[in-house]
Amino acid sequence: MLKELLKKDEIAAMKARDKAKVSVLRLISADIKAFEVNEREDISDEGVIKIIEKNIKQTREALEYAKQSNDEEKIAEGNFALQVLTPYLPEQLSEEEVTNMLKEIIANGSYTAKDMGKIMKEIMPKVSGKFDRSKINPMVKNLLS
């Protein structure tokens, strides 16, 4: 399970005295623990992936602010966190693959621009954890125009 892999990597980073990596992995472990306590159940790999995706999204947003304020230290921290977290996600889909999936969905459903929500509902489960969700909406708009 992904949860155990994260824990092993966290322990290995502690033994290697890699404080930065330990810090990033502890944030993920804390989010996983919070989920398990709140839901009173063990988390699945899909749940762990969602937590990692959420953290990556927050890190990217923080990076944007850091770049705007020219905070080199925060930029370095954010880039390091992304390097640590990205390998735990499933193999990523290319834009071309997602575009082909969207074309197929649109063709099979005879969707128009008014059916944007239906298209999004159909594509999201297929790309969850495998593609940046923020890029999908513009892709759909582009294909429907």
UniProtKB/TrEMBL annotation:
InterPro entries: Asn/Gln_tRNA_amidoTrase-B-like, GatB_Yqey_C_2, YqeY/Aim41, YqeY/Aim41_N. Signal peptide: none annotated. This is GatB/YqeY domain-containing protein. It comes from Clostridium brassicae. The lineage of its organism: Bacteria, Bacillati, Bacillota, Clostridia, Eubacteriales.
